[in-house]
Design a protein that fits this description.
The chain is an alpha+beta fold. 32% of the residues lie in helices and 28% in strands. Bound molecules: adenosine monophosphate (AMP) and glycine.
Amino acid sequence: MKILIVGSGGREHALAWRLKQSPRVTEIVAAPGNPGIAALARCENVAAENIEALVSLARLERPHLVIIGPEVPLVMGLADRLRAIDIPVFGPSARAAMLEGSKGFSKDFMAKYSIPTARYRRFEAHQAAEAKAYLETFDGPPYVLKADGLAAGKGVVIPETKAEAEAEIDAMLGGKFGAASTSLVIEEFMHGEEASFFALCDGETAVPLAGAQDHKRVGDGDTGPNTGGMGAYSPAPILDAAMQKRVMNEIVTPTVNGMKKDGRPYRGVLFVGLMIDQKHGPRVVEYNVRFGDPECQVIMARLKDDPLPQLLACATGGLAGCARLERFDDHAVSVVMAGAGYPGEPKKGSVIRNLEDAGKIPGVIVFHAGTAKKGDDIIANGGRVLNVTATAPTLQQAVTRAYEAVDAIDWPEGFCRRDIAWRALSREA
Ligand code: AMP
Ligand code: GLY
């Protein structure tokens, strides 16, 4: 079987790496891929946002399955375009991808189907005064302001004072994030522990895949600005079997049923960002319509069963009759190595050495994200550059292996957090 993977990050490298092991996969094509993926697949230089060129590529290649990694092409309707030419796609239609593409849509959807989430209201560009008045209805800071549309992970602002929140309302409704923020959601700040839960869906049925936890802040101890994610681990202790069952019953199944009822059947992976506390149980922070990055890396690293049958069933139906993915390695950790300056403008072009040695450490896989090839060298070419991933029978061993590999990599211009998985480790202590 021939698979086309759309995207160029560590998430897509992890998917290619896992699918390469499937006995049914004969060829993988990636668009555009990266130097790590190039070791497993043929990379075609077509950007993940270039819908027309991706459709042409798919017409030419005729893959048996297309897996769309990032949210932007999904929200732009790539899955619809491919289904229209009878190519099976793992990923939701544009109408279903609204769950991530519009915060306002997702909040209204959750309200309609009584899916637990933070209290909210939506505001349009001319409603700054109403938005500021709505701040009064909360106990006090922090306030949660969300740009309606996609803003490359930067569209959520959590001001610590009312004055800051008011200024931010003016900035966002004034177009701080372009068209993405001329419509705004303001919602209640939820306390608790965050976790990421992944379920696979074929439009009718949803089955659980796995849970993970991410570290969004750039600095040790969860300090500094938010990033796309500086590291992840799976399983997440807070998402034990009982909690996963609650998330399926209270959130995932009602979501898939509601989307079907609304004529927006959801196909692909549903990534639910959760806030969990004793009082409220699991509540939705946000939906994403794709695998998390770097959560995908730890889930693929742990997964022992071949995911291909389920991924195909998500695309073509029949997920309920598919064998469950249930064999996993015990623990996986992924440490993100980023270029100096990230999450601001990262320095590019520095040479990364010793990747091979790092990859020889037992249980370690180094996934590439923002790398490029220059002659024979691998160079840094983005913010998040490498995802140093390790599996092991215990979480502590996985962490130790991952950092051993980080230390083996010779890249003085890169940095990483040194405390990935601290929350889960402190529970064990
Ligand atoms: P999002 O892009 O919606 O995931 O938001 C980015 C981050 O902001 C989340 O991962 C949370 O850490 C935080 N966040 C978003 N919404 C809330 C909320 N209602 N209460 C507390 N934290 C939130
Ligand atoms: N790591 C969080 C995300 O992929 O959105």
